[in-house]
Amino acid sequence: MKTREIIRLEVTESTNSTGLELGERGAVPGTVVVARAQTLGRGRLSRFWLSRPGMGLYFSLILRPELEPEDLSKITLAAGLAVAKAVEELYRIEPKIKWPNDLLLNGRKFGGILTETGSVSHLPEAQNPLVVVGVGLNLFPPAGGFPAELQQHATALSRHVEGEIDAEALLQTCVGAIEKEVRRLEGGEFAAILAEWTKRDAVYGKTLSWITRQGQAVTGVALGPDAEGLLRIRDGEGKIHSVLSGDLTLIAKFSGKAK
Which of 40, 107, 111, 217 has CB atoms 3.0–4.6 Å from 137's, for a disulfide? Predict the structure, then answer.
């Protein structure tokens, strides 16, 4: 069994930022950066991730996967599946996944995945691109509870499991699971990964409002990811949109139906 380097920090701005910096400086793939707290923890679309001391598990895994550039975005789905499976294994509960990177329990978010790539400007021809997979998990609610703007949307693992939560065991299990799913991705098994992911899809058949990066609003029914991992949404006129990025919000009612 290989020895893994785990860099443990009391506090950092972001484990992903630290991981990217270390990766660019030659850190070995499989290196993990974990912190008790982040001052500028971030999620998708540059959102802030609440990362107070003693509240959660915040780590980033440095990878150099053997994948084509167009396949790197699939790592987010593979990592989300991996973390969901790790939680299932340890705590016998079944998280759902909201495309592309939110982990939910009873409809509320307790975790997220942020995959980022390093600079390729100085990348040697024979070297695989640098990818850092960041994971943030709420293990416990913050002292005094979640802030008002998060109370209806956020939860913590401790609210859904009995007994002790071992952050170190969860870290090791998550890291191993992510590496396993990335190896499957490298081996051309994305269809199998997607099939498992789809069983945990939190929004299939539900109505979403999608705000594109251009600010356009699209409302429709979620049809799940396509073969490339892009979310499909069918609007009220029957047009299917493939979502690469943008803001997604569940809404209560819509005339469309999933098929």
Answer: 111
pLDDT band with cut points at 50, 70 and 90 for residue 253: very low
Number of structural domains (the chain) is: 2
Neighbours of 245 (CB within 10 A): 13
Structure tokens at 118: 């390093």
Tens of pLDDT, residues 181-205: 999 999 999 999 999 999 999 999 9
CA angle, residues 94, 4, 48, in degrees to nearest 5:
55
Q: Are both 211 and 120 inside the same structural domain?
A: no
Beta bridge partners of 32: 6, 61
What is the average per-residue pLDDT within 164-182?
Answer: 97
CATH code of 227's domain: 2.30.30.100
Q: What is the pTM of this model?
A: 0.89
